[in-house]
Amino acid sequence: MRRYCFIFMKLLLWVFFSGVALCLEVIETTCPSHVPNYALSWLGPPKREYTDEKYYYRICQGLTSTPGNIPKKAVRVYIRGNTIETLKVNDFSGLDQCYYLGLIYNEVTSIELGAFTGLNALRTLSLSNNKLTQIKSGLFSGLIKLEGLYISSNELTRIEPGMVSGITSLEDLKLNDNNINHIEPGSFSGLVTLWLLEIKDNQLIYIASGLLSGLVTLLRLNLSGNELSHIEYGVFTGLPSLRDIYLNANKISHIESGAFSQLPAFKYLFLQFNDLTTISWTMFTSGNININHPTELYLYIRNNPFHCNTSMCWIQQGQLEGWIMYPSYNGIRVDCANSDQARHVRNEVSALPDTRDKLYGV
Fold this sequence. Notes:
There is one protein chain. The chain has 4 helices and 19 strands. It is α/β, with parallel strands linked by helices. The protein has 2 domains: 34-187, Leucine-rich repeat, LRR (right-handed beta-alpha superhelix) (Alpha-Beta Horseshoe); 204-362, Ribonuclease Inhibitor (Leucine-rich repeat, LRR (right-handed beta-alpha superhelix), Alpha-Beta Horseshoe). The longest helix is centred in the N-terminal third of the chain and has 28 residues, at 2-29. The radius of gyration is 27 Å and the shape is elongated.
C-alpha cells in the first residue's frame, strides 16, 4: 500500500512541476521581444488571458483586431502585446461601465473617428507604445469623464488644435517619447482641469509665447529631453498654479529676462544638462518690476558649461537668505568651466557687501 502511495505522490509531483515548467515556458516565449515580459499574477498562476464579468485581459495573444467578446459590464479592458493595427468605429460600443482602457504595445497606426463612442465612464485611456503618426481632431470628444490620456512612445510629429483640446475633465496628459517638433497655438485650449503635462524626449526646438496660457490648474510641466535652445519671456504666462518646470537635457543657452517672473506658485526649476554659460537673476524679474523672487526655490543647474563671474553670485546670496534651497542630491552647485573661474568667484563673493543692489545687479 505504501508503495502505491509513493508512486502516486511521485506522479502528482511530476504533473505539478511539468505544469509549472509549461507555464513558465509560455510566459517566456509568447510575448514579442519589445514587449515587457510579465503576466497577470494577482489572479493566481500567471496568465496572459483572463475574462470575467468585470475584467477582460488579453496579453500577447496574437490578436489582429479588437475582439468582439468583451463583456458589456467590463470595467477594465487591457489588451497588450498584440498586432492590432486599426481601431474601428464602435469597437468598444456598449462598454458604458468601463473606466480603464489599456491598448499598449500593439501595432496601432490609425484610429477611426467613433472608435471610442459609448465609453461614457472612461477615466483612463492608454495608447502608448504603438505606431500612431497622427491623432484626428475630435477623436476623444464624448469622453466626458476622461482624466488620464497617455500617448507616449508613438510616432507623432505635431500637436494641433482638436487633438486633445476641449477634454474638460482631463487631468494628466503624457506625450513623451514621440517625434514631436511643433505645437500649434490653441492645442491645449479648454484643458481647464489639467495638472500634469509631459512632452519629454521629443524634438521640440521652440515653445511659442502664450502657447500654454490658460492652463490655470497646471502644476507640473515636463519638457526635458528636447532640442530647446532659448526660453523667451511670455512662455510661462497665464499659469498661476505652475510649481514644477522640467527643462533639463535640452540645448538651452539663453533665458530671457522675466521668463519666470509671473509664476506665483513656482518652486522647482530643473535646468541640468544644458548649454548655459550663465544664468541671471533677471529671469525672475520683468522690466522695472521690483524684485519678486519665489519664496522657496529648488534650483537644479548642474552639468552646464558655466563661465563663472559675479553675475552668478545671487545664487549663493539666495541660499544665505533662505529662499534658494540646497537639495540633498543633484543640487545647485555651480560647476565652473575651469578652476580659475571658481577661485575668482569665491574671492569676489567674499569681498562683496551684503546688499542686493550689487549682488543682484538691479
